[in-house]
Amino acid sequence: MDMKRQREDHYFNAREKIYDRLAQLPKGTIKERVISGWKYYYLQHREGKKVVHKYIGREIPKDLKRQLQEREALRDNLASIQKVLMKFLTARIRDVA
User: Fold this and answer.
1) Which residue ranges make up each domain of the chain?
2) According to the model, what pLDDT value does residue 29 have?
3) Are 75 and 62 in contact (CB under 8 A)?
4) Measured between alpha carbons, how far is 88 from 7 in angstroms, rounded to an integer?
5) At residue 97, does pLDDT exceed 70?
6) Does 78 or 94 have the greater pLDDT score?
7) Three-state SS at 79
8) Rounded Cα–Cα distance for residues 26 and 67 (Å)
9) If you average pLDDT over residues 72-85, what whole number do you get?
10) Which of 73, 90, 58 is nearest to 22 (CA)?
11) Helical (H) or strand (E) element with 95
């Protein structure tokens, strides 16, 4: 297998690993609501066209915050990988044409 194909495979595999990890992490963002002067936190995400709010509590759990930060970092990394893959695919189309 040539080097170019190995690099492509590397990025495709990295993308799949990111998708797998994203599937394990919670979706959404943390929203704060103030009711009668008390702060309450909710995890907000979409299910189809519907926005769902899941009650978290009066404090944000540190592990949830960490997981959401990890999800954001993975999505940024995924965007970079997608750009590289698009370059590979564009080059492959040019080679065929």
Assistant:
1) 3-96
2) 94
3) no
4) 9
5) no
6) 78
7) helix
8) 7
9) 96
10) 73
11) helix 62-96
| Amino acid, single-letter form, for residue 83 | K
* Residue at token pair 């609501």: 33
CA atoms within 13 A of residue 97's CA, in its CB half-sphere: 6
Measured CA distances, 24 to 9, 20, 49, 53, 90 (Å)? 23, 7, 22, 19, 31
User: CA 64 to CA 45: how far, in whole Å?
Assistant: 14
Residue whose token pair is 């949830």:
64
**For residue 93, what are its two tokens?**
């189309």
**Among candidate residues 27, 22, 66, 21, the one with its CA nearest the CA of residue 44:** 27
Do the beta carbons of residue 82 and residue 15 sit within 8 Å?
yes
Q: Which tens digits make up the pLDDT trace of 11-66? A: 999 999 999 999 999 999 999 999 999 999 999 999 999 999 999 999 999 999 99
